[in-house]
Amino acid sequence: MAARERTQDEVHRLLGRLIHAYARLDLNMGLQLKWLGPYRGVPIDHLLDKRVPLAHRFCALRPLVLEVYATDGVDASRSFSQWFDRADEAKALRNDYAHGRWLFDTADECADPHFDFVALSWEMDPAKQDPPLRLSLTQFRRQVEEMELLSGEFFKLESKFRDRCLPPIAYQKHSERK
Predict the structure, then answer these.
(1) Mind giving me the DSSP string for 105-142?
(2) Taking the model in full, what pTM does it have?
């Protein structure tokens, strides 16, 4: 198999991992929103629809998380704010990468092959077009790994601050609710 095809195959595998990690993040953040919204008396049902972008759920979830965990002080607020900033960056990359074009014009035989990415655009004027982004497989792999880490890191933060910020919650089965 030629170097170009090996690079294409690896990029496509990594893109699949990125899409899967994004879907897992979306599910987990939706579940957080599903309990935090009612817990804080904020209507969120309109956000829990698959046609609503994750960005809208993040806009509602971020202030809820910061409000709930702010009782632990600056450390919790800073930690969650930094997490949301990282998640926003990863989410934006996923959106660009899922809708853009991947260019493999050369047979790059080096240990860390490079390729170009072009964001989705219908601009016909070359002077107004965004230039391609040159990436190595290592750079792209790191971006994918960042997306894969986000869900777990959120729950590590949540568990670190939960006992100090939230009173014990008694859950009722749906059939027990009035």
Answers:
(1) -S---SSS-EEEEE-------GGGSPPPEEEEHHHHHH
(2) 0.81
In a domain, 3, yes or no: no
Domain count, the chain: 1
Q: What is the DSSP letter of 130?
A: P
Q: Which domain holds residue 109?
A: 15-165
Q: Does some domain include residue 37?
A: yes
Sheet holding 101-103, edge to edge: 101-103, 114-118, 133-136
Reading the block at residue 59, the tokens are 């806009």
Q: What is the pLDDT of residues 44-57, one digit of tens each?
A: 999 999 899 999 99
137 bridge partner residues: none
